[in-house]
Predict the structure of Glycolate oxidase.
Amino acid sequence: MPDYIEFFIELLGPEHCFNDEQSLEYYSHDHTENLRFKPSLVVKPKNAEEISQIVKFCNEKNIPITTRSGGTGLMGGALPINGGIVLSVERLNKIIDIDTQNFQATVEAGVINFQLQQALEPYGLFYGPDPSSWGSSYIGGNIATNAGGLRAVKYGVTAAAVLNLEVVLPNGEIIWTGANTLKNSTGYNLTQLFVGSEGTLGIITKAVLKILTKPKTDITLLIPFHHLEDSAKAVTEVFKSGLIPCSLELMERNALEQTLLHLEENSISLQKNVQAHLLINFDGNSHEELLPLMEKTIDVIKHYPTEEIYFADNEIDKNRLWELRRKVSEIVKLNGYTIEEDTVVPRAKLPDLIKFAHQLAEKNNMKVVCYGHAGDGNLHMRFNHPEYKNSYQNPNINAMLKELFEYIHMLGGTISGEHGIGLLQKPFLPIVFSKANLLIQKNIKKAIDPKNIMNPGKLIPD
Amino acid sequence: MPDYIEFFIELLGPEHCFNDEQSLEYYSHDHTENLRFKPSLVVKPKNAEEISQIVKFCNEKNIPITTRSGGTGLMGGALPINGGIVLSVERLNKIIDIDTQNFQATVEAGVINFQLQQALEPYGLFYGPDPSSWGSSYIGGNIATNAGGLRAVKYGVTAAAVLNLEVVLPNGEIIWTGANTLKNSTGYNLTQLFVGSEGTLGIITKAVLKILTKPKTDITLLIPFHHLEDSAKAVTEVFKSGLIPCSLELMERNALEQTLLHLEENSISLQKNVQAHLLINFDGNSHEELLPLMEKTIDVIKHYPTEEIYFADNEIDKNRLWELRRKVSEIVKLNGYTIEEDTVVPRAKLPDLIKFAHQLAEKNNMKVVCYGHAGDGNLHMRFNHPEYKNSYQNPNINAMLKELFEYIHMLGGTISGEHGIGLLQKPFLPIVFSKANLLIQKNIKKAIDPKNIMNPGKLIPD
C-alpha cells in the first residue's frame, strides 16, 4: 500500500480508491498482447476539478499517472509500467449536451463511443468515428489515440471530429484548448496536439465534437476475390472511379475463416478459391442515390476474377456482416495471433505491403493474417508464433517488426494509423522520424510535462 | 545595408538578395490594413538546403527571419516588424509530383494555390482549399495560416488537406513532420502544429497534400433575402435538412452593392428590398444528382421572404457569381473599409453575431459590412471609420474589437477562422485563451525556437 493513499481517500472517498489485489490485477492489463503491469493504486475521480487536485499532488510527489479509458488499447498506452496510479475516467460518463442547431456534442471523456451514437440516433445525427471497439472504448481514449474506424474513409478519423478539448495539464491547471467552431486559425493547434498524445501531455476530461446528419440508408457489398493482390488493387480502382464509400474494408481469407468458425450463425459461405474479401458500404439518402454507386462498383470490380458479389440492404444482413468485421481482431487474437500491428501506407501500396508481410512472416516461421481499413491504406496484421506470445522485449520479433517498418517507411507509410505508439511501438519511432524530429517531440513533452509524471515511458523514445 | 549581407550574397548569389529601396518597400507590406515595416534585406533562396544555411546563420547572429509567401495576409503575419530579413519562398515554386494512384500532390511552398488547381484539372482531380486569394496566395502561406476558402464547408480547411510537411527548423535542421498517409497515430501531430503556426516555429518548404476526384458538375443558387437575419437563420436550416453544400456564402447588401459598382459587367440586379444574399453551390456527378438538392434547398428557403432565386448552371454565369464573391474583400477595402476581422462562431449563432456587429459599429461611429463563409460560421467584417485607417495600435478601435471578441467568445466562437493571428490579433488572444493555455503556447514556441528568431512578435502575446 503506497504511503500516499490517505490523500486520495480524503479527496475522493474510499469507495473511489482501490488497492485490493483484484483491482490492481484488472487495471494491470488492457487488450495489449499478454502484458501485465500493476499500479500501486487505482483512482476514479468524477470530474476535472478532482483530477486537477490529483495531478497537483502527483506533480509535487513525483507519482506517475497513467490515464485509463475503456481499456481496449492494443499498444500498451494505458499500462502503468512505472507503477504509480491508474486514473480511470470511467465516472466521467455524461453526455453534457447535444446541440442540434450547431451540430455539436459535448461529452465527458468516459462516455462510451456507442452510447454517444445511440444518444444521437433520435435526432437523426451521428458521430463519425466508429472504431471496431466502439461498444466499450471511451471517447477520451479514442481522442488520446486518434482512433479511426470503419467509416473513416468518408468521415475521417477522430482528429477530424474534435473541435475543442478540456484538459487537465501536468501542473493541474484546467484549460480549454480551442473554440467550439468548425474553423479555427487562432494560435497553435493545441487541440490537435492533445489528440493522439496518449495521456503523455495531460488528461482529457471533456470534448466538443462535430456531429453530422445521419444518411437515411446504406447498402453493403461483400466481394469475394480469387486473388488477394487483386482485392488490394481494386481498392485503388474504386477511388480512381470517383466513388466515395463510407467504409472499404479488406479481410484476407484466413481472417474471415477464423472469425466465421467462432460465430454462432452466419450467412456467408466461403468458397474454396477465394483469397480475400472486400467489404464496401455506401450511405446516402435514398435507394435511388445508392443504385448508381453499386453499379459503378460492379463495373470497377468486373475486371478481376471474383465469386458472386453478396448484397446486404436490410438491417439484419448488414449488421451481421459488420459485426463479423468488428470481431475479426478479437477472435484472431484468441486463436493465438497475439501480436497486432497497425500499418498504414499510401493506398496504392497495399498490394506491395501485403505481399511483403506474408514473405516476412514465412521467413520468420510465423503466421500472419491481414485485415482492416484498406480504403485508408490502414492494414492491421496479426502475427502468430508457436513460442512467442508478445512482441514486447522479444528481440527476434522486434527484429522482424523493424524490417517490416523499414519497408513501410520506404513506401511512404508509417507504423500506426489509428492505434497509437504507447509502449510497444516506441522503440520503432526512429525508423520513421529523424533525430531532429524526435528532438522536437521530446522538447514539447518536456515543455508541457517537465517532471514527466504523465504516462512516463510511453510514446516518446527514451 | 546590414553588415551580414556578404554571407547571403555568397550563399545565394547577388541576384537573389535585395536591399534596394524599391524591394525593401515592396516587402514592407502585404494586404494588412495600411501597415509598412521595412526589412534590412530580402532573400530568395531556391530550396530547403539553402534555407537551412540561412537559418543556421541567422540563429547564430540573432537575426529575425520573417517568411513571406504570396503576401496576401490580412493580419500582418508576413510583416518584418523587427527588421532582419524577409525570406521569400517565391522561388520554391515547383509542383514536384501528382500521384494519381494515391491521390496526393507534393508541392513546394511557393506554388500558387490556383496553379495547383490547374495542374490537377487534366487528371480530373482537385485540391480542396480555395481561399478567395487563390489567384496569388501560395500553398506555403495557406498552410502557415490554416487558410480556409469557399468550399471548406464540404472539403475542409487547409489543415484537413495536409498530410506531411518538410520544415526547416529554427536550428537549421530539415525534417519531415509525418507520413504520406491518410491516417496517422504516430507520435505528436507535428504536422498540425506547423499548420497555422504562421512562420513562428520554422519554415515550411514542401507539403504532401491530399487531393480529391473532381465532381463532374455543379450548380449555384443566389438567394436574395428581404431580411439579413433570415439569411443567417436559413444557413442553419439548410444543414438541419441534411444538405451538404460545397459552398454556402453570405453577403450582406452593402457588400454586394459596393462590389457590383466596381465590376464592369454583371448580371445581378439588386432589388431595393433585399438586405442579404446567400450564395450556395452544390457539386456532384450528374445534373440528376443535383436536382433534388436544389429542390430541397428551395423547400427550406420558402419560409422566408425572398426575391426570385437566381440559378447559374453554365460556366459563364457561375464564374461571374463566384468572382463577384471573391472580389468583395478587396473592393470593400478600396472603399475605405480597411479593418478586416475574421470572426467565427458556432453556425447557429450567426444572427446574433451580425446584429451585434452592426450595433457595435453604430455605437463607435463606424460603418461595417459583413460577408463570408456562413456555412462554417466564419464571417468576415470590414469596418470603416472616417478618421482611422488601421486598427494597429489604435486604442479606440481596439477597445471596440475587444468588445466584439468578448461577445464572440461568449458565443463559443473565436477571433480567427482562417486568417490567423499575426500582429493584429495578438493582443486579443487573452480574451479567448486562459493564462494556462497561453503559457503552454509560449512554452512550445520556446521549446522549438529558443532564440526567438522565427517571425518574432507574431502570434504569441508578449
